[in-house]
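Two proteins were folded this term; both appear here.
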Amino acid sequence: MDDRVRRRVGILVGVGLAGGLLPGVTMGAETVDVLLSVMIATMVIVVLTQLVFIGPSGRVPVRMLLVFGGLGFLQDALIWWLLSWLAPKISAMHVEGWGTILLAALLTRTAMVVASQLTSRTEIAAD
């Protein structure tokens, strides 16, 4: 699996976790609203993280991973802040408060970094 695909899967998982675990993130009342909200949030985050890419492409030492993770967390927090303003205008999603924005950014970035660092042994051996 390509690194970009792994990052996108990580973003999808992170948005799903943020919507499911955080009480300040409301995705909607019906299943269709929830799916639409998750897809919109995922698409916004994927597009913006592709435009301004912060992160490693492949495996890196832990120290660099922490630097990339911190900068990416800041980027994701700004994107979730944008979503807190934009999402109620186009979907049933609602994000309340700075604490929720920061926790959602932390969940999203952690899931993305974990997904991007998961590689099979054959991919590591091929490098």
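Next, the second protein.
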Amino acid sequence: MNHIRGLYALPLFLFCMLSLTGHAQDISNYSKLSQTDYTNITLPPLDLLFENAKNGPVYELADVKTEIERKLLAKEKRAFLGFFSLRGSYQYGMFGNESTYTDVALAPYLTYTTQAQNGYTVGAGVNIPLDGLLDLKSRIKRQKLNVQSAELEREVKFEEIKREIIELYTTATSQLSVLKLRAEALELASLQYEIAEKNFTNSVIDSGELSVEKQRQSVAMEAFEKSKFELTRSLMILEVITRTPILKK
């Protein structure tokens, strides 16, 4: 009964894992695998899984934080430019001049002239707050420490991911070996039960002996399904964490 509850809990667990990744991801379809397919699964190299895990959201988020701190460091190194300022202006247009002329012999008359003119101004200024100047070197140093902290945090996250991958990888490797043995045991138990059925039909054995063989087959089947469940769970979580398909298409 506990094993059955575990089988129903697997889809819900994987749904939660996919929700945490932030976006949908294709996972291999293990429901269509036969008993032989399971025993022929080959795991990718650990180095490949580690490298592909860098495409996951946990590592990418830490990488983005590191890049943000680096950008802020570059900004702090240019902060001294804020002590200086440049200003300038430029004007261009048609200017008009209106005038009136008269003398003793002439009646007053109006004249109007236009002329294109342009003009510009350029200036610079310096404003150096003492607190900003004295704290500039310290701000750069603090930001360098922030960059180093972000890089270390990224490495810590990656180490945690690698430990989780190693745990799942070793579990899957162990279950692959166990599954092969239990598959052989199940095949033998099923064969024994088939022989027992024929002997029961031919009245060679009684129902009690047939029941014993059926029980052995059921125990072998339950052990095989339990190993298959543990292996499937480990492989599917590995695919989520490492962004690496395990099954060959």
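The first helix runs from residue 2 to 21. The longest strand covers residues 84-101. These notes refer to the second protein only.
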